[in-house]
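Batch manifest, entry 17 of 40.
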Amino acid sequence: MIEIEEEVVSDDPVHALPSGGVVPGFSEFRDLLPDCGPELETARDLAAYVLWSSIVEPSGYLGRPSILMSKNWMTNLWSWDNCFNAMALEGLPWLAADQYFSIFDHQAKDGRLPDYISDGFRSFSFVKPPIHGWALQRMRERGLVDEAWLAASYEPLSRWTHWWLTERSASENSLPHYYHGNDSGWDNSTVFESAVPLESPDLAALLVLQMDTLADIATALGDDRQSEEWNARSQRMLDMLLDQLWRGDRFVARRVGSTEDVESSSLLTRIPVVLGSRLPTDVFQALAEDIGSDEFLTASGLATESIRSVAYESDGYWRGPVWAPSTMLIVDGLARGGNSDLSGRIADAFCSNVARSGMAENFDALSGRGLRDRAYSWTGSVFLTLASQYRTR
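Output type: structure tokens
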């Protein structure tokens, strides 16, 4: 694989937003994180320690205090894990902003974000899914985002969105596509087993929300014309998603230029539930019923491949194990669509299993045991967010 570096923007408004402070010691850091209730206090302490111990000082390409994925093996900052980590830092809004903007500091002139950065390297070989608008809106709702952050985010988030709409769309009437499973963050998902480039429903759904966020920011900045344009683009993307990839009971993926559906039992094609109330009621209910079935929902959380699938593997990376980011997106979408019962049950299952099995990279969906890296920062962050905001108590 050839690693590619690209010229980055040097006059971006992100660079005018300086890093906001000094990382406190562990006890103070822990006390500034969300309350998860007394029964999860021990797990909260562990999540706090995994996050705090994964922070590195600015160095090289890391221009801000940065929470690495892990200090075991995954010692980089990928262009979506930073969003999940930022969302958990409610008591440290300046550090949340640093996590969010760390990737945008290296945005290419065409709008593309790097796949990952470290102190000594940045890679553009792949990208990661555009969850940045979704994450920013959630943090706005929790009071993390001030006016300076909001103003600084608009232009880079716009360029990132335009890149998907132009560079990753085959035509004006085509949905955006992934070149590789790595672009989706679901590296080896069965969705990508036989067909790339691929129009996958999660990508369109995330861009709908990202354009909704851009419309809201434009309104907040006093630009009603831009707001109307983003709203129109968002609605058009949603209409295309429903028209092209909804099959009456499920979403499908398909290869660019083909009318044949990709056969897959991956949870990835259920991610459009993140749209919540933006979906037609019947579509939302069908997705919720599917997600809540015993094909995906186990006592440990949501399997990323149907446990009845011939492709299911207990330690198959994105072909079975429970992961934090997919859980977070689905729980949030279910809650916003009005199904707080199912969103709460999934949050309960995930948080309870994390309390038993630790902050692992992912988990065996049936046994609940931790897999791969055992100190993963986004697992800790998603645990803190779900336990404090979505879990039933």
